[in-house]
Design a protein that fits this description.
With 99 residues, this protein is of the alpha+beta class. The chain has a single domain, classed as SH3 type barrels, CATH 2.30.30. 34% of the residues lie in helices and 32% in strands. It is built from two helices and five strands; from the N terminus they run E-E-E-E-E-H-H. The longest helix is centred in the C-terminal third of the chain and has 30 residues.
């Protein structure tokens, strides 16, 4: 699934910019955004820089995504541990009936 995510500009070269893509420098097209500067944030979707984003807003959104990713990883670990102990099985009829 593609998401429009803010990325920090690392280099500017004509109509393309290099952005920080999760620690990996990645080139994207930025013809629609003239005069970009290193350090600015742009919203990237499908290899295109679509719009500028204020630094504070971009950093808040990136922190939210990082927290969400962490929660999903924790939930995945808990799910794996639960399945490993056989705790994912359906309750018995006796348990459901209170006996």
């Amino acid at each position: 699934m593609c998401q429009a995510i803010p990325r920090r500009v690392l280099r500017v070269e004509d109509v393309r910019v290099q952005v920080d893509y999760g620690g990996q420098p990645t080139w994207v097209h930025a013809a629609a955004l003239p005069n970009l500067r290193v350090g600015e944030y742009v919203v990237v979707y499908a290899g295109q820089a679509l719009e500028r984003m204020p630094t504070e807003q971009a950093e808040e959104l990136l922190a939210f995504y990082a927290g969400l990713e962490s929660m999903l990883e924790e939930a995945s670990v808990l799910d794996t541990e639960t399945r490993g102990r056989g705790l994912d099985s359906e309750p018995s009829r006796d348990t459901e009936m209170g006996g």
